[in-house]
Design brief:
mainly alpha, 2 domains, three-stranded mixed β-sheet, about 10% strand, binds iron/sulfur cluster
């Protein structure tokens, strides 16, 4: 896939300032407390609801918090603890002082408490768990594209369980029901035109020109300027995946995997430093936050993968090796990509979901000596001498 310049980004391309580091974005930034059902009401609001039950001010504050920073931490609340009051205290006045603070108001809030807990159930989290807005909405929309079972339960109407007046208006579905918008390449091409579509109605996409400018600058640097390469260990394998079928392929618009491959093939002795976290691949990616130097799509799982690769290679974070020696180690020590990217399905949270590593990628790279220039042959998992 080659880079297509829809519009050349020159020096006049506007700088994108919203995704710089601020006091609200650092790793220690405090979370915003949000009740579980507010997440759904905020989607309804984006879809056209003008009178959200939690109040406009509450929802607008939540939306502004997430729009400023897609990885904004949310603490998702659900008041299960109100049920810890003993029933004799609660119903027979045995020990009124033993009741939790605001007990009555909290108990009487059962309609919304149920929805808060439903949202926790859908997300697969404990109440009061902190998670980034991007992931909260990614999985809420993926698993709950309609309000069925959340605000429309099918239970017989009753005075004690009023239904929200907005539950059947389609506001929520207008946003959550949009299927996931494309892959990273399509997201790169759309840029700010993604805004308002599905997940991207809740968190802000990067601008197209800013991404193109970062692509041009970073690709130029990798191909010509850099004296050493900085690559996260997991991406060493992604490089091989991307050139598996066609080592001569053109660069991708949204990342620099192909550029790194070309430079290492051209100069196999170029030093490569293994960096944890985002690296030279990421500058132009739609889910990369330049200010925080963070991939909000895969921050956690990529961090784990990096360490898995380092352990298999017997290297520490920050180790520096010539590219050919690094890849030789990979060919000698890794049997297949699935050892790193193919975590068993069924026992992982979605934000640690396995990748779908292509079969035979590593075998072929090993056989053809990609980047090393010399093939490596394995017998019973060990490299044969002299290869
Ligand atoms: S329908 Fe549900 S999500 Fe929408 S505003 Fe009402 S309570 Fe909130
Ligand atoms: S930002 Fe994330 S998804 Fe994008 S290239 Fe980097 S690691 Fe990959």
């Amino acid at each position: 896939m080659t880079v297509r310049h829809r519009r050349a980004a020159g020096p006049s391309a506007p700088a994108e300032t919203w995704n710089r580091r601020t006091a609200a974005t650092g790793p220690d930034a405090g979370p915003l407390d949000v009740r579980g059902h507010w997440l759904a009401c905020a989607a309804c609001f984006r879809g056209g609801c003008r009178r959200p039950p939690p109040g406009r001010a509450v929802i607008q504050r939540l939306l502004a918090f997430m729009w400023a920073y897609p990885f904004a931490p949310l603490r998702i609340l659900a008041d299960a603890d109100v049920t810890r009051a003993h029933y004799l205290d609660a119903h027979e006045g045995r020990r009124p002082g033993g009741l939790p603070r605001d007990f009555r108001a909290r108990r009487d809030d059962y309609v919304w408490r149920r929805r808060d807990l439903e949202v926790c159930r859908i997300l697969g989290i404990m109440p009061n768990t902190e998670m980034p807005a991007y992931h909260a909405y990614r999985w809420l929309f993926e698993r709950q594209p309609t309000l069925e079972g959340l605000c429309r339960t099918g239970a017989p109407r009753s005075a004690g369980w009023p239904q929200c007046p907005h539950a059947r208006r389609g506001y929520y579905e207008r946003i959550a029901g949009q299927s996931r918008v494309g892959n990273l390449h399509e997201q790169f091409l759309l840029g700010e035109r993604l805004a308002g579509r599905g997940l991207w109605a809740m968190v802000r996409p990067r601008g197209r020109e800013a991404m193109q400018r970062d692509k041009d600058r970073s690709a130029r640097f990798i191909l010509a300027g850099a004296r050493r390469l900085y690559i996260r260990p997991g991406h060493l394998l992604c490089v091989l995946c991307n050139v598996h079928a066609d080592p001569g392929r053109g660069p991708l618009a949204e990342d620099n995997l192909v550029e790194l491959y070309r430079r290492m093939v051209r100069e196999p002795d170029i030093p490569v430093t293994l960096t944890e976290g985002c690296d030279m691949v990421c500058d132009a990616c739609n889910v990369y936050h330049p200010g925080e130097h963070l991939c909000y799509h895969a921050h956690f799982k990529s961090a784990l993968r990096d360490l898995v690769v380092l352990e298999k290679l017997g290297l520490r974070p920050g180790a520096t090796l010539p590219a050919r020696r690094l890849y030789r180690r990979i060919y000698e020590r890794l049997g297949s990509l699935a050892e790193v990217c193919g975590w068993r399905p069924g026992n992982v949270a979605p934000w640690f979901a396995p990748c779908n590593p292509g079969k035979g990628v590593l075998d072929r790279a090993r056989r053809e000596g990609r980047i090393t220039g010399r093939p490596v042959r394995l017998r019973r998992g060990r490299a044969l001498p002299g290869c």
